[in-house]
Amino acid sequence: MRQDDYFLNQIDILGRILGKVIADLLQLNSPDNILQIDSINEAVKNGIDLELEEIKTIPDEDFLDSLLKNPKINLDNLEKLAETLRLLSIKSNFEFNKKALNLYLYVEEKSTTYSSVRISKIKLLKEQNGL
Questions:
Q1: Cβ–Cβ contacts within 10 Å for residue 118, how many?
Q2: pTM (2 decimals)?
Q3: What is the C-alpha to C-alpha distance for residues 2 and 5, in angstroms, rounded to an integer?
Q4: What is the b/e burial string over 48-71, where b = at least 16 CB atoms within 10 angstroms of the residue's CB?
Q5: Can you tell me the distance from the alpha carbon of 44 to that of 125, in angstroms, rounded to the nearest whole number?
């Protein structure tokens, strides 16, 4: 029981970290863009033990499998990470659209909850990736 509580707490913490990252991304147009990217990088590193540059080097097709090995990851956190990567692709020089699409597709397949927002993001990412 105690170990389950610990993991649930870790998953909750990761969800809050990724939520903050998304909030920071929505404000990336400010003059402090570089500082915000550093802040986002630090938050992602604290959450999933990977930096943005490391994420960039992982092949798109291997990214999901590498994340699923992390016990802190659940569907909600994967969806938040997908949104983070999607927004980073829009507002910075990172190209994470395929990784975000793979995460969204996995969440859509495994989730028991229908989300029209998720469906629209998948459709948009497919269009952006020429699929």
A1: 18
A2: 0.72
A3: 5
A4: bebebeebeeeeeeebbeebeeee
A5: 21
Tokens of 131: 């699929």
| Residue 50 token pair | 């990977």
Distance between CA atoms of 80 and 48, rounded to whole angstroms? 12
The structure tokens 């990761």 sit at 14
Tokens of residue 55, six digits: 């994420």
Residue-wise pLDDT tens digits, 32-68: 555 567 777 787 787 778 888 888 899 999 999 998 9
Tokens of 11: 């998953």
Rounded to 5 degrees, φ, ψ at 71 are -65, -15
Q: Which amino acid is at 113?
A: T
